[in-house]
Specification:
Blueprint (H helix, E strand, L loop, with lengths): L12 E6 L15 H11 L2 H18 L11 E11 L9 H15 L22 E5 L12 E5 L6 E2 L18 E6 L2 E2 L6 E7 L11 E4 L9 H9 L75 H11 L14 H7 L16 E3 L3 E3 L2 E7 L8 E6 L2 E2 L2 E2 L5 E4 L3 E11 L2 E2 L3 E10 L10 E3 L4 H7 L1 E3 L7 E3 L9 E4 L10 E5 L12 E8 L9 E7 L7 E7 L22 E6 L10 E7 L6 E8 L12 E7 L8 E6 L3 E10 L4 E11 L2 E6 L9 E9 L2 E9 L1
Parallel strand pairs: 2-3, 2-4, 2-6, 5-7, 6-9, 11-19
Antiparallel strand pairs: 1-8, 8-9, 10-12, 12-16, 13-15, 13-17, 14-16, 17-18, 17-19, 20-30, 21-24, 22-23, 23-30, 24-29, 25-28, 25-30, 26-27, 26-29, 31-32, 32-35, 33-34, 33-36, 36-37
Length: 713
């Protein structure tokens, strides 16, 4: 962990990092980037410096008339709202039980009821503080409606959010910060792609009690077992780190402005009883300690793994802030009787019975025919006592259980509609379309050789599945190709978030009849700089995508096909493409296999994919350059369709056959004829009229085959 050195003029937002690096001197730079953030804030509003100073002047005056060791007569109640911002159907979801446990843990910490309070060393026991503060989840929302104090929203800002963009999550959901303490729980905050991640950050009140005031915290550091939120609330109530200014004064004139927290030279997770990073002569004369003082690792405003206390001076600073009536920086309005009534947090504080807001999760996204999916109620705003499900394509088609298991017997893509209820009423129904993909037990492509050149956009759109949480996805393009005019690509050049993942899932193949137990494909990729960490990972599934197994990983030299490109990369030469070969012998007898091409961005340039050859030998620009585009259209078609293809060279033996799903020959369009180079368009059995069904057009030119599916409706 890196330490932070903050002065009054640079104290606005505080960031905590999760990192594998060791503690460093705060003067060695690259700590929490607070100065960088504050410089921007001051450029936008230089009056923040004066606003902070005015708050510090108020606190000094408050301390003259307040004795932190006196027991406060009335507990200060703080109304809280949790904004749980998830992504990709619920990633980063935190349960009501987890939220309740976190609120309880925070109350224990602030009221010194925490079980590990007994671990405070005797040296610091005279200065420990019970803050008489209680945090309560709001029971009335800003519109006066019944609530559990929890808001759930879905947003890409929950995932791979850089610290510079983290403020965006506050615009997804926000309640008036003069009435509620806003806490946003998200999935991840990344620090500039350098391998460090932020656990949470808070805004000081000196920056204003406004639409950005509150705390952002990641779900991994949220819950009853974490002290991150206790630490961040300390910042929200105007506490600095115990290591704020290294070994400079920790009294009124500097450091964390608390005399009873000894100066600490640097942050550390260390709980060494003998750790003393500052010498005696660095201790301010106002400090209550009369001898060389060890680091107070117990303090919640340290980075140690054994936090268990706030100090009396820290209590004074927080209570001063909570009693401050300033319209700009004060928090006194939070705990007024009027606001407690407005937010539903006044006594008697009991669990309300509200109408739920329906939501649900499911344990599988892809299954085979006959497979089942379990759905789970994730409603919030109340604990439902009634559940009403409708399952398109499912068996049963409806359920009143809280967590039903549904069987899907027919291939297709299906949605679900759900509503939950309590004695207060029913939620508005929620519908999630196209969430369950059911695949046939028979492979989409049963032939011994299948070739996909992505020339047919209808086939690509209907048979290939694109998974993309946010940002730029796999897409069909005419910008480059190895054969024909199309390939698929990700415009990774424009991807701003390192770690973004995009998947492309193939149709299913029968490998048991494959001529060669291999999959070959062409790829073109460039890095921007040598340190880019992009990867493409190939997975396979033998259960229709219900689970995936790793088959191949391409990275660095195995993925890069050209020299680094700082401009927007498009392959223009055959040498820009490499053919990759994946050994499928371990699954060579599988009769229903799908492949997933997962690209994980590492800061590099664009990636292109073309000419996927399953079960055959290499074709394309290197070994089979006499055939250009091979297209079937329209597809799907009514009773008949056309084939369009171009020959760059003469072909001695060309055959085009139509086969049914069982591999039986239905008709021959061309049977072993010689063709000269040129462009051709042929009708597929225009007179006979094919009945509705799935067919495979086998194109064989001089003993090299391609197969494409044709759907007749």
């Amino acid at each position: 962990m890196k330490s932070i050195l903050l002065s009054l003029s640079v104290a606005i937002s505080v960031l905590i990092f999760i990192s594998t690096t060791n503690a460093q001197n705060p003067e060695q730079g690259n700590w929490c980037y607070t100065d960088e953030h504050q410089k921007h804030l001051i450029e936008q509003d230089p009056s923040l410096i004066q606003q902070h100073q005015e708050l510090e002047d108020y606190i000094l005056n408050f301390k003259k008339n307040y004795n932190a060791s006196d027991k406060k007569a009335a507990t200060i109640i703080i109304p809280v709202v949790i904004h749980n911002i998830t992504h990709d159907g619920g990633i980063a979801y935190v349960s009501k039980a987890t939220i309740d446990a976190q609120i309880q843990a925070m109350n224990d910490d602030f009221q010194r009821l925490n079980a590990d309070a007994i671990n405070t060393r005797s040296l610091f026991l005279p200065y420990v503080a019970d803050l008489d503060i209680e945090f309560r989840l709001a029971h009335l929302d800003p519109n006066g409606e019944c609530t559990e104090g929890i808001v759930r929203k879905e947003s890409p800002y929950s995932y791979n959010t850089s610290k510079s963009a983290a403020e965006n999550v506050k615009g997804v959901s926000y309640w008036d910060s003069k009435k509620y303490l806003n806490i946003w729980v998200i999935d991840e905050i990344e620090d500039n792609g350098d391998g460090t991640y932020i656990a949470g950050y808070a805004q000081f009140p000196g920056n204003g009690i406004n639409s950005t005031y509150g705390i952002v915290i990641v779900d991994q550091n949220f819950g009853g077992g974490s002290r991150t939120l206790t630490h961040e609330v300390g910042h929200c109530f105007n506490l600095y780190h115990t290591f704020q200014s290294g070994c400079s004064s920790n009294c009124d004139g500097g450091g964390d402005r608390c005399c009873d927290t000894p100066p600490v030279f640097e942050s550390s997770f260390n709980c060494d009883n003998n750790r003393n990073t500052c010498s005696t002569d660095a201790v301010d004369v106002l400090s209550p300690y009369s001898s060389d003082v060890v680091d107070q690792y117990e303090n919640y405003m340290s980075y140690s793994n054994c936090q268990n206390m706030f100090s009396l001076d820290q209590k004074t600073r927080m209570l001063a802030t909570l009693n401050n009536t300033s319209t700009s920086t004060g928090l006194a309005q939070l705990s007024t009787s009027g606001n407690l009534a407005f937010t539903g947090t006044a006594d008697p504080y009991t669990t309300p019975i509200c109408k739920p807001i329906a939501d649900f999760s499911y344990n599988k996204e892809y299954i085979c025919e006959g497979g089942n999916v379990t759905f789970t109620d994730e409603s919030y705003n109340a604990t439902p006592t009634g559940w009403a499900w409708t399952f398109t394509g499912g068996s049963p088609g409806a359920s009143g259980a809280s967590s039903p298991t549904i069987t899907y017997n027919n291939a297709g893509t299906y949605g679900v509609t759900y509503s939950s209820s309590t004695s207060a009423g029913s939620s508005a129904p929620i519908t999630k379309n196209n969430i369950i993909t059911v695949s046939s037990l028979t492979a989409d492509y049963p032939g011994p050789i299948t070739y996909e050149s992505f020339e047919n956009t209808t086939t690509f759109n209907n048979e290939w599945i694109i998974e993309n949480p946010e940002g730029l996805a796999w897409e069909s393009t005419t910008a480059a190709a190895t054969t024909g005019s199309r390939s698929v690509r990700i415009r990774n050049y424009f991807t701003s978030e390192v770690g973004e993942e995009d998947a492309l899932i193939s149709p299913s193949y029968d490998l048991s009849t494959a001529v060669s137990k291999t999959m070959r494909f062409k790829v073109a990729f460039a890095k921007k700089v040598s340190t880019d960490t992009d990867r493409m990972i190939v997975y396979y599934s033998t259960n229709c995508g219900e689970s995936w197994s790793l088959k191949s990983v391409l990275s660095n030299a195995n993925l890069t096909t050209v020299a680094n490109q700082t401009s927007n990369f498009t392959p223009t030469l055959s040498s820009h493409w490499d053919e990759k070969v994946v050994d499928l012998s371990s699954i060579g007898t599988a009769t229903n296999v799908r492949f997933k091409f997962l690209f994980k961005s590492g800061g590099g340039n664009n990636i292109y994919l073309d000419d996927i050859n399953v079960g055959g030998f290499s074709v394309g620009i290197d070994e089979f350059n006499n055939v250009g585009a091979f297209n079937i259209y329209p597809n799907p078609a009514h009773s008949n369709a056309k084939i369009s293809f171009s020959l760059f060279k003469n072909v001695e033996n060309l055959s085009v056959n139509v086969k049914n799903a069982l591999g039986q020959n239905v008709t021959s369009i061309i049977n072993g004829q010689a063709f000269t180079s040129g462009q051709y368009t042929l009708s597929i059995d225009e007179q006979r009229k094919l009945p509705a069904g799935i067919y495979f057009i086998e194109f064989n030119a001089d003993e090299v085959s391609r197969v494409q599916k044709l759907i007749i409706q």
